[in-house]
């Protein structure tokens, strides 16, 4: 299994922040562009009325990118 990069835990960090405040889990909206096995994903998450987006070669990487954007934009330590 390849080593995980530092940004790979952003979705988990955002989920933990939501749960710590009793907000449940954040909801991600995902979209795929391109062929089924060869394309890119975009993901967005809305936190406190702000929309944060990310993209990547997989849905999980796009969600992690969106979560990282949210954590940075809201200055939530992770």
UniProtKB/TrEMBL annotation:
- Top-level division of the source organism's lineage: Eukaryota
UniProt xrefs under Gene3D superfamilies: 3.30.160.20
Provide the DRBM domain boundaries: 9-76
Q: Which InterPro entries match?
A: dsRBD_dom
Cited SUPFAM superfamilies: dsRNA-binding domain-like
What SMART domains would the database entry show? DSRM
- Which key words tag this protein in UniProt? RNA-binding
Gene Ontology molecular-function annotations: RNA binding
- The entry's protein name is DRBM domain-containing protein
Name its species. Schizopora paradoxa
């Amino acid at each position: 299994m390849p080593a995980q990069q530092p940004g790979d835990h952003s979705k988990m960090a955002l989920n933990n922040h939501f749960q710590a405040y009793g907000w449940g889990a954040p909801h991600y909206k995902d979209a795929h562009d391109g062929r089924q096995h060869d394309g890119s994903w975009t993901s967005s998450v809305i936190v406190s009325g702000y929309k944060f987006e990310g993209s990547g070669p997989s849905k999980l990487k796009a969600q992690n990118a969106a979560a990282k954007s949210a954590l940075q934009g809201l200055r939530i330590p992770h």
